[in-house]
Amino acid sequence: MALLETILLAALACAAFTQTNQHELTPAQVGEIVNRLHAAVKDYVFPDIAAKLQEEIEQHRTHYRTITGLAALTGRLTEDMRGVGHDRHLRVTFNEQLAVQNKLTPEEKRHAHAFDLSSGLGIRSARWLSGNIGYIDLRIFLQTRTPAPPLRR
What DSSP character marks residue 137? Predict the structure, then answer.
């Protein structure tokens, strides 16, 4: 699950920033990033830590809005999240290519679906270990309506 949080938080930092190429943020852009992060951490794998992460964000919201540098903001958010969650997988980074798009074209949807299918819908491998233990190597959790094919022994 930690990989999911890493990917999610990495994408969040750029969601409100994709319309510009500059690395200076307005208070409105910072507010959007912080709002999205606050909403996203609600789904963190440990509910008690999720509540603490949200509380941490709320306590520092006013300070975050004073940060204008993208690197400084992502660094501070990462530091705060790790300080509370004690999870080194938590990080906020900027990458325009990870930007969240609200509306995909039909062609983009077909392409994404084909990619998901070609990557095994997130399942890298599955095997039986000694002692009748099933091992599934999941690389990502996808939100898809297409079920993966059943895993066979």
Answer: E
pTM of the model: 0.56
Q: What is the pLDDT of residues 88-143, one digit of tens each?
A: 888 888 766 555 556 778 888 888 888 887 777 778 888 888 998 988 888 777 77
What count of other Cβ atoms lies within 10 Å of the Cβ of residue 11?
19
How far apart are the C-alpha atoms of 93 and 96, rounded to whole Å?
Answer: 10
Q: What are 74-82's contacts with CB under 8 Å, separation 24+?
A: 74/13, 77/13, 77/33, 77/34, 77/37, 80/56, 81/9, 81/41, 81/53, 81/56
Q: Is 26 helix (H, G, I), strand (E, B) or coil?
A: coil
**Whether the predicted pLDDT of 6 surpasses 90:** no
